[in-house]
Design a protein that fits this description.
Elements: E1 4-9, H1 13-22, E2 30-35, H2 38-47, E3 52-56, E4 58-59, E5 62-63, H3 64-74, E6 79-83, H4 88-97, E7 101-104, H5 107-111, H6 113-137, H7 141-150, E8 154-158, E9 164-167, H8 169-175, H9 179-182, H10 198-209, E10 214-221, E11 227-239, E12 242-251, H11 253-302, H12 308-339, E13 347-350, H13 352-368, E14 372-377, E15 384-387, H14 389-405, E16 411-421, E17 425-434, H15 456-462, H16 468-478, E18 483-487, E19 493-502, E20 530-534, H17 538-550, E21 554-558, H18 561-570, E22 575-578, H19 587-595, E23 608-612, H20 619-626, E24 630-633, H21 638-648
Parallel strand pairs: 1-2, 1-3, 3-6, 6-7, 14-16, 20-21, 20-22, 22-23, 23-24
Antiparallel strand pairs: 4-5, 8-9, 8-12, 10-11, 11-12, 13-15, 16-17, 17-19, 18-19
Helix pairs in contact: 11-12, 11-17, 12-16, 13-14, 14-16, 18-19
């Protein structure tokens, strides 16, 4: 077995001894010659050629980098550099000077030195073989240059100091310089002024010399002064026996132009989406404001003595307002779906509450048609869960409302069961079944698409936008569930959907407020409150004041935020209902002033409830950020005001 002749250049005796111990039982055997200075090293190296050299960079009698330079030029053996500093800059300097690799000194590295030497010798032998092959390939140099210059991409060959050693025809055509104008220069002369981080480019070059291929974008400047972007790949390689960097560059002007156009298109699309959202928000405000007046007056009329004929007419007005409000809500929700802005709240609630509320709200309509509506929640369904009860109620309301709409006689049932359960979540299954007209088989797959109601005849007979089920499907997907239907024409339908809810931590469930009363019901106030209504629309202001008075409270009014602040300075109101969009001073700014320490109001912590015709995503968050305590969307019913008061007290 051939023995390995290792020359060790190390001035620390302890380190030298540790390395020698590591090789005591090495296979193949290693003969170590230890020297502690450059002078001794050169004497030993000239007397006999070692198979490999381990060299400490920091020596007392000279510059080890100079020794490396001499070694790389004159001696056919590999050199491993040992250093106490793991700096990347030290490594790059050593590699450029001719070291095969570098090692950071440590007991673990010393112990594994035999493996490092074996690996280095194997790599060195491979390099020697490659160099021998390169010598043989010199005969084919002309063919190489033909290929080199045929490639359309620009190819650069750079020395370790980054100067150009050679370029191909592609680089000449890309920049407009002759080959001789490249040679000996660095890439800086090709850089577009102010467009590149040249320090970062230098770091990339160093990493490439460490054997890590690099890819980056670089703005170039042609000889005629025009600038352009290019994509560059840089790798360490050999060029006729020399260590070099080989870079391949592509002109990506067309790609960059397409990216710029795409960014412009995306910006235009976002602007259009924003304009659409603003338009819908403004339209919602403009429509809800007069609707609030109509609905409020209808509610007030329903609480007065009327003839049967007058009561019928007033109910018809209220029904039309509810239909129009449902249409607006569907359009707004569908806009959120299209914009990807439909989100869920995450609060603790009693699962039976939204189920029962859906039935109670629609009970009067069902009774008017002679229908029976029943709901059943299985005993094993957890009572308290965490999720969005409002969106769940919206889905159930839509499905039950459709069931009542399409059922002439019989019953509608809601069945809630437990599908799966873990320690942290529960998967529920909801079924809404009716005995109505049913859905033809050929349209069942499309009823969850937008603007689809199972055929034009259905739309003409029963009305609606065809958006409700499409919105329900999106909400159910947010619940990580699925929705489907089983139906037969003339025999009724069963809509089934699943939803996953989280379980609240033990002891984290909050008491649930009593359900809000049904439309037309006025729950007596628990105590008389003095309430300020801030509203710039005289009709809406009158309606809100009258509703509050019927609830047993004393209500005053203010026409804008400025007069509201003056009123709060005069009297200690218990609660404020604040419109958001008003002339002179809007509700948001008025609330901020009221909450500020220097406002001068008698109670800067007075509960403030937003009473607004805006109903887009984020409106509630904006109200809360301004310092408001709650949010009621117009048109507000008497029960909505009562519920808001209960939440504040």
């Amino acid at each position: 077995m051939k023995r390995i002749n290792l020359l060790l250049l190390e001035d620390e005796p302890a380190h030298a001894e540790a390395i020698q111990r590591a090789f005591e039982h090495a296979i193949p055997p290693v003969d170590i010659q230890w020297v502690s200075s450059l002078q001794e090293y050169f004497e030993r190296a000239s007397a006999s050629t070692p198979d490999i050299v381990l060299m400490d960079l920091n020596l007392p009698d000279g510059n080890a980098h100079e020794a490396l330079t001499l070694l790389s030029e004159n001696n056919p053996f590999p050199v491993l550099v040992m250093t106490s500093c793991g700096s990347e800059a030290v490594a790059v300097t050593a590699m450029k000077a001719g070291a095969l690799d570098y090692l950071v000194k440590s007991p673990e590295v010393f112990a594994n030195m035999p493996r490092a030497v074996e690996r280095a010798l194997r790599e060195w032998n491979l390099l020697q073989a490659h160099q021998q092959m390169g010598a043989a390939l010199l005969e084919r140099e002309s063919n190489y240059f033909d290929l080199f210059n045929t490639v359309k991409q620009a190819i650069y060959i750079q020395k370790p100091d980054s100067t150009f050693l050679n370029v191909n025809q592609g680089a000449i055509e890309m920049y407009g310089y002759e080959r001789e104008e490249f040679l000996g220069k660095t890439p800086e002369f090709l850089s577009a002024p102010g467009k590149n981080n040249l320090a970062r480019v230098a770091e990339i070059v160093d990493l490439a010399f460490l054997g890590q291929p690099q890819q980056f974008e670089f703005w170039g400047r042609r000889k005629d002064g025009t600038i352009f972007p290019k994509d560059v790949w840089t790798v360490r390689g050999k060029y006729f026996g020399q260590d070099v960097l080989i870079s391949v560059a592509n002109d990506i002007t067309e790609h960059a132009t397409l990216e710029s156009r795409l960014r412009d298109s995306m910006a235009q699309a976002e602007a259009a989406s924003h304009a659409k959202s603003e338009f819908l928000a403004n339209m919602s405000h403009e429509i809800r404001t007069p609707m609030n007046g109509i609905a409020g007056m209808a509610d007030l009329l329903l609480d007065t003595e009327q003839t049967p004929e007058q009561h019928e007419y007033t109910e018809a007005i209220r029904s039309c307002v509810d239909s129009l409000l449902a249409l607006i809500n569907d359009i707004l929700d569908f806009s959120k779906v299209e914009a990807g802005q439909l989100t869920l709240e995450n609060i603790d609630f009693d699962i039976r509450t939204p189920v029962e509320e859906s039935v109670k709200i629609l009970a009067r309509r069902a009774q008017a048609k002679g229908l029976t509506v029943a709901c059943l929640v299985a005993d094993d369904v957890p009572s308290f869960l965490r999720g969005d009860p409002g969106r769940l109620r919206q889905v159930l309301f839509n499905l039950v409302d459709n069931a009542i709409k399409f059922t002439g006689s019989g019953e509608v049932t809601i069945d809630v069961g437990l599908l799966a359960e873990t320690e942290t979540s529960a998967t529920l299954r909801f079924k809404v079944t009716d005995s109505g007209v049913g859905i033809p088989q050929n349209v069942q797959d499309s009823i969850f698409s937008k603007f689809n109601q199972g055929g034009q005849s259905t739309t003409r007979e029963f009305g609606g936008t065809g958006l409700g089920l499409a919105i329900c499907r999106q909400i159910i997907h947010l619940f990580q569930g699925e929705i489907g239907v089983e139906s037969e024409a003339g025999k009724g339908s069963t809509f089934t959907f699943t939803a996953i809810f989280q379980k609240p931590p033990a002891g984290a469930v909050k008491p649930i407020s009593p359900a809000a009363p049904l439309p037309g019901e006025n729950r007596p106030a628990t105590r008389n409150l003095r309430i300020l209504v801030v509203e710039d629309n005289a009709t809406n202001c009158l309606i809100a004041v009258k509703m509050l008075e019927k609830l047993g409270h004393v209500a005053d009014s203010a026409s804008n935020g400025a007069t509201a602040i003056e009123a709060l300075r005069r009297l200690p109101y218990d609660l404020v209902f604040m419109d958001c969009q008003m002339r002179v001073l809007d509700g948001f700014e008025a609330t901020r002033i009221i909450r500020s320490p220097g406002s001068g109001v008698q109670n800067p912590h007075v509960p403030i409830v937003a009473l607004t015709a805006y109903a887009m995503k984020g409106d509630r968050d904006i109200c809360l950020e301004a310092g408001m305590n709650d949010y009621v969307s117009k048109p507000a019913k008497s029960c909505d005001l009562a519920a808001a008061i209960e939440r504040c007290f």
